[in-house]
Amino acid sequence: GENVEQHPSTLSVQEGDSAVIKCTYSDSASNYFPWYKQELGKGPQLIIDIRSNVGEKKDQRIAVTLNKTAKHFSLHITETQPEDSAVYFCAARSSGNTPLVFGKGTRLSVIA
Amino acid sequence: ETGVTQSPTHLIKTRGQQVTLRCSSQSGHNTVSWYQQALGQGPQFIFQYYREEENGRGNFPPRFSGLQFPNYSSELNVNALELDDSALYLCASTEGGQNYGYTFGSGTRLTVV
Q: Which end of chain A is more exposed for a tag (fewer CB within 10 A), N or C?
């Protein structure tokens, strides 16, 4: 089955700097890669996703890149703000009814 | 548009007891998945329901069971609770069995003592 590794487990950046979180996956059939943000006491919130037919997707300060050959994808947050502080999870899913498989999460702290 | 709502928000049970957790899916969503999130870990897939039938199951024992109702709301039942069942239980819904764009609820925090 699918296995998703996520790095780093913790990340601290200064406000205004960029943050990058990386994930690798094992199943070459995986074709959907969402990123979730989880704040304390809340459920994960989808912030951006990418499908395997594109290599990059942007939404304001957030971007995701996908390298299918290397089986890795990354989340890029530019101009970080204190409200970006949260735990971020990557996930991967192959076709059909297979479920999302999550990484273990990255705790991002943005220092003002 | 309403989101995914879960109840209760917190629950304390004794080892060996049974528990039922409830989830109302987002309007228009007919697919519901349940996940278990241990402290400091990513969510782990328990099972999924599509149009009232289970159509996927993770590596969880049979004492974890579920239901989906005609209005697409769902229940997660856990029998013979164990201490390791203490976790945040998350419900997520999506539309049309597509398995894209899951919307998560805020979860039920279950503590087994």
A: C
Q: Give how far B9 is from chain A: nearest CA, Å.
A: 10
Predicted confidence (pLDDT) per residue in A23-77, tens digit: 999 999 999 999 999 999 899 999 999 998 889 999 999 999 999 999 999 999 9
In chain B, the residue whose alpha carbon lies closest to the alpha carbon of A42 is B106
Give the C-alpha distances (Å, rounded to integers) separating B27 from A37, A62, A98, B99: 22, 27, 23, 16
| Predicted confidence (pLDDT) per residue in A62-77, tens digit | 999 999 999 999 999 9
**Which residues in B lie closer than 8 A to residue A6 (C-beta atoms)?**
42
| Binary contact (B102, A104; C-beta < 8 A) | no
Contact A96, A2 (CB under 8 A): no
Q: Is A39 on the interface with B (CB under 8 A)?
A: no
Chain A positions in Cβ-Cβ contact with residue B4 (cut-off 8 Å): 43
Residue B64 to residues A15, A98, B80, B94, Cα–Cα distance (Å): 43, 19, 9, 21
Interacting residues of B21 by C-beta distance below 8 A, sequence separation 6+: B6, B7, B8, B11, B75, B76, B77, B78, B89, B91, B108, B110
**Residue type at position B99:** N
